[in-house]
Every structure is written in structure tokens, then in C-alpha cells.
Inverse folding.
């Protein structure tokens, strides 16, 4: 399984599905469209991001870095990507309407670009799996992948 390292606290909000856009300077490989990836919370902490998440998502979203562990913390499925204006460049199925409705309209709020990866079916894991992260989209070590797949929340519903 491929993984994506994301700065903390952003990783938590991607893993819980509260942030459905992951901003990158590059598009994911075409073959990853529709695929589930592991969400890895990296060592780096973004103070401004923590404040923004708390302001937007409410006080329940603490900026306490101790509540945002490092390691593999969840999974999400790449369903498409868009440019900085929010124009969909690619999507998994043409019948998928992105954004959908309700809270999904927040997806555009999180778009800083230049490329926004559109994620769905995010599921946090019950416990983080320690693992060193990397830049780009990278393959999980076999032992970490086995631990991830053994957790019930990692299995696609």
C-alpha cells in the first residue's frame, strides 16, 4: 500500500475526513485514482495549521500536539484532483459529483493548491502505527502494511 506523509495536525483532519483536500504541488500518479492510501502523520508540526483547524472545526479540535501522534494514523481513497481554482481535473467516476453536499462543501475551503487531491472514505485507525515517513507517495514497509491491514478500520467498507 502507498502512503502519504502529511504535517501534523493536518494529517489527523485528513484521516478523520474533516479535511477532504490534500494540497500538493503535483498530481498523484494516474494509477492511484480510486486507490486507498495510508495517511502518515509526520514529525513536522504546523502551528498556523493547528490554529486554523481549531478556528474552522471548533474548539474540540485541540492544537495540543500530544493529541496528534506521529506514524500511520488512517487511510483515505484518492477520488480525484483539482487545480487551485477548484476546477476538477480528474475524478474516479464521471457520475461522482465533487463536491457532493453539506460538509463536503468545505472541501474548497481547504484548497490552497496548486493541486488539490480529493479524498473520500477516510478512516482513522484505533491506534497509530509507528513508522518513519518519506517525501512523495511511498510504499509502506511490509510489516507496517500488515499491521495496518489487520486493523478493522483499514478495511474498505
Amino acid at each position: 500500500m502507498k502512503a502519504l506523509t502529511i504535517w501534523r495536525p493536518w494529517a489527523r483532519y485528513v484521516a478523520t475526513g474533516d479535511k477532504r483536500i490534500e494540497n500538493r504541488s503535483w498530481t498523484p500518479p494516474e494509477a492511484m485514482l480510486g486507490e486507498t492510501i495510508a495517511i502518515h502523520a509526520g514529525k513536522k508540526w504546523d502551528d498556523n495549521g493547528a490554529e486554523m483547524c481549531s478556528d474552522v472545526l471548533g474548539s474540540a479540535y485541540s492544537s495540543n500536539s500530544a493529541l496528534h501522534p506521529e506514524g500511520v494514523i488512517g487511510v483515505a481513497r484518492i477520488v480525484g484532483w483539482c487545480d487551485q481554482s477548484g476546477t476538477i481535473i480528474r475524478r474516479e467516476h464521471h457520475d461522482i459529483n465533487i463536491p457532493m453536499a453539506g460538509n463536503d462543501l468545505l472541501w474548497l475551503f481547504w484548497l490552497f493548491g496548486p493541486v488539490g487531491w480529493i479524498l473520500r472514505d477516510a478512516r482513522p485507525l484505533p491506534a497509530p502505527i509507528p513508522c518513519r515517513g518519506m517525501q512523495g507517495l511511498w510504499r509502506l514497509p511490509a510489516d507496517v502494511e500488515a499491521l495496518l491491514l489487520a486493523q478493522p478500520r483499514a478495511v474498505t467498507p
Q: What stands out?
A: The first strand starts at residue 2 and ends at 8. The CA atoms of residues 13 and 27 lie 20 Å apart. The chain has three helices and seven strands. The longest helix spans residues 47-57.
